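[DERIVE STRUCTURE TOKENS]
===
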Amino acid sequence: MNLQPLDLFPTPVSILDFDDDPDLNGALLSLCGGREEYNDAAGRNMLLDGDDAIRRLKAKFDAGLTAHLERLRLAGEREVDAFLFANFTTASAFTPHHNHLIEADFVAIYYAKALAYPNEDVAGLYYAMDPGILVLHDPRGDAGLDGRTPGIADHHKVYPRANRMVIHPGYLSHSVTPSPGGERLALTCCFVLDKSGRYRDYVSYRR
């Protein structure tokens, strides 16, 4: 597992690239492609399902969360509430600017399948972005000034890859640029720490 630490805006974000796991990713594609209720943040929490692929995915989320908390010097046994949902698409799609401030302390996104990018233009222009990429936006109040050039770090682009996980605080606004279509699967887990029972349908455990 390779962890890439980023301190943006400044906001701690971790990008983790796990070893390739085609069996797990294939199983998740099959599962999410056949269960519409999973593809809805207001729907069923996937962690309530006993499927083996979900158990294996949860282990990756736990490893990612542990690594991120160690970066923040918050390591140790903690009470965790978690809600997992999927975003499976085959047609053109995008995700508008939003955050998870109300329902999460941390958000982790795992990509089981993503578009292929011959070149990853992380430092390119804001108004000339590649399709289907994750954009992290500066949470500070004065960052809305329209100075979006490569020399002004009011956003950061993350290119999805299979086996990649992105972890950021729930308050960090983000969006996904329009994609042209094609099979794509991102799974998002919202974590709440040391506040057991705060939200309905979350799964509580200790890690």
About this structure: The chain has a mean pLDDT of 89. The first helix runs from residue 22 to 33. The helical segments are 22-33, 52-71.
